Each structure stands twice: as C-alpha cells, then as structure tokens.
Amino acid sequence: MTKPPKKSILASFAAYTATTTPTGDEALAGADMPHLANRVGAGVIGATQRSLSELREERDRLKAAVSTGGSIEIDPNLIDPSPFPDRLSDDGDGDFTRFKELMASEGQLVPIQVRRRPDVPDRFQVIYGHRRWRAAKDLGIMVKAIVVAYDDRELAIAQGIENAARQDLTWIEKALFAARMEDADVKARDIRAALSIDDGELARFRSVTRAVPVEVVHMIGRAPKAGRPRWLEFAGACREGEALTRVRETLAAAKVPSSDERFLLALGAARGNPASGEVARAEIEMKTRTGRTVGQVAFARHSIRFNIVAEEAEAFRIFVEAELADLMDRYDASRQAH
After folding, report:
1. Which of 227, 183, 240, 230 has its CA nearest to residue 206?
2. Percent of the chain whose pLDDT exceeds 90
3. pLDDT at residue 284 in the model
4. How many domains, the chain?
5. Looking at residue 31, what is its pLDDT?
6. Which of 102, 159, 258, 338 is deepest in the core (most CB within 10 A)?
C-alpha cells in the first residue's frame, strides 16, 4: 500500500475554515483558550493540498468571516510582536498617526491574527496585523483577534502569504523576511509560494542579505525608492575590501531623515566615494522668536534641504516665494562685497 503524499506546510496552515469563537473576557480564561486553539489547530493538521490561489481565497474567506464576529477581544498589553519582524523603521510616523486616528473614529474593522507564545502561554504573538495591534495599544482599547495554533514555521509562512498581498513592503523588507523564513527552516518552495516569487528572485534576496549585514540594513531603513537593481549593486560593492567599514562609518555620521537618502550615502561609501552621497554636515532646527518649531534645515556639500512640519508647510512656501527675489538681491550684494 503506497503512502499518501505529505501535505506541505503551506497547504496546511491556511486550510481551515472560520468558526464562531467566544467573545468577551471569559474567552480569555485558561480553560477556553486552549480549546479555541485546538479547534483551529485541528483544521491545520487535517488540511488537504491546495494551490496558492486557493490558499489566498481561503484567507479572504477567513477575514470576511472573522470580521462579522468570529473573533475575541484581547488586551494589547498581553501581545508581543512576531518573532519574525517584516518591517523596517519608517522615515516618519505621519502615516501611522493617520491610521490610528482612523481606527479611533471608525473602530477596528478587521481582526488581527495571533498565537499563544510557546514560551509564555499567558501571552500572545502577532502573526499579522502589527499596525492594528500598535494602534489599539496606543489608544488604550482592546484589540479584536483570532487565535490560531501555529508553530514557528507556520507562523512565518502565514506572514509571508499576508505580505505577498501587500503593496507597501519594500524590496529589502521582503528580502529580509525571506532570510528570516530560511533561518526558521522553512523550505525554499514554501518561501517562494508564500511571497509569490520565483527561484531567481529568491536567489537575488539571498545575494543581498548575505552580503549586507542586517544591522547595516536597519541603519539604512526601508529605502522605498531603491529597488532591486540598486540593492544588488550595493551588495556587490559591499563585498569589496573595506567597503562595509566605510558604509558603517558614513551611516553613523549621517544626519539625514530619509531612508532613501541614507541608501545613497551607503552606496556612495561602498563605492569608495562618500561625497557622492551628499553627507549632511549640519542640521539646524528652525524656530520662530516665540519658540514655535517650523522645521529643520540640513546643509550638505552641494545641497540645502528644508524639512518643514506639516502645519507650517503651506504658509512657509508662500512666504519663501514672496521673499525669494529680495533674498537673491541680498545674496548677490553679499557676494559682490566679498
């Protein structure tokens, strides 16, 4: 008798259907939560092989089901982030602030997904929905969640499939996440399926993450404008001699708020030409006589960059446009005097 083929982790993790779960504080009692986790886990173990498109449809059906009541409420202070972070630091917190304001006014429309921490059973870990969890924590409200029983590999794959549907993860964030899945012993075929990439792209991810240390990537940040060709170029330059030493020194001394600018600094340093990255030499905070902050101005070798706070931006633009002709006359006079 021939043995049936093994089910892949990818097919297993998402092949459960939504069920109605307890709501309210009583759902967090020790006797109830393991029961909930076991019910979902049993669906995972008993799953059948499915295509990637079917898995995505299953995920969408699950989201639709839990958003209509199939979730519980958890104190966000009992929840920790995923052990496999998929986000680098943002250049600013403006987008998150707007997201939080929207959640405060309209409520949490889609539950997050969590698991019980294997090492601390009375705490949870986010599988996906980190921004909703952070917003609920900042707002001091309970967070709607569905609890599933995943091991580390299943958690990483679940995050990968969710990430593949998101358009705002940058190329390097996806590359780092693929590396973290490999570190968790997720098979290459499951990484490719989870992130909707082919062998060539996975090879390029590996090429960059093996040449550029993770702490250097974190020093740079998301760099949304960099893209695959620039990161491959940067990784190639980092393999040469003292390139990484120059990159670290340049980034440590840099005073630029944009991750795209930090990437250019790092690329210039890796090439042995830090000046091409326009290292900022000074940054001055601009304040009115009454102490109100208007923004910052950064001076580099060949550029001056203004970073104006949102509420002052339009008024400052109008002021500069009106004063520019007079300012240029004064500048010209000062140049002639010297």
Report:
1. 183
2. 30
3. 74
4. 2
5. 31
6. 159
